[in-house]
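B., you asked whether I could sanity-check this one before it goes into the benchmark set. Here's the sequence:
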Amino acid sequence: MITLANVSKRYSSGPSLSAALDRVDLTIERGEFVAIMGPPGSGKTTMLNIVGLIDTPSSGRYVLGGEDLSNRSIDQLADLRRRHVGFIFQGFHLIADLDVRENVELPLHYQGVPRAQWRSRAREVLELVGLEERAQDFPDQLSGGEQQRVAIARALVNDPSLIVADEPTGNLDGRHDAEVLDMLTTLHREGATVLLVTHSEDRAARAERIVHLRDGRIVPAARI
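And here's what the prediction gave me:
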């Protein structure tokens, strides 16, 4: 499903260029659950942003679902991202003056889904995360774990083929941490492809495979 071939990402740093990713090769199969680990500055978030179509490589090829995206425009990548990728971040990024249902419906609006379909689809994903009875509550009425479950529902409402999670439990306590990880595991078992970025070995152990990054390169675990 996902192939990074000799991918590098460089950023300007004064008169020179620094590499956030350096000639990375990685394949993630459809339906696989992969965790990305590494110390701060290792390139984890840069890799996640490229895979999630938020950023583009400086060089190399990114193939998604058999399509080489190297020459796609920003608008084309944004359209692919809206249709195929669901994001779950450490921060919940819920809109305070929208209720739970309205927060979940937002991606449907941006994708151009007919308004008549919004409520039924939002209800489906809120039932999936166990929050259908909180649909008319506002974010500040929810616990941290409930807010993250709303964020997961929002990520799922477009039925994405890829779920990208960047430290999704970093702001949660132990019980809510486990609840969110359980949900990601369930989504994977139901066929979703999941890419999890984390610094925690315990969280990474939920994945089928762990990829270790250091200084922008994939390295054996012993070198971390």
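One thing to flag: The first strand starts at residue 2 and ends at 13. Otherwise nothing jumped out at me.
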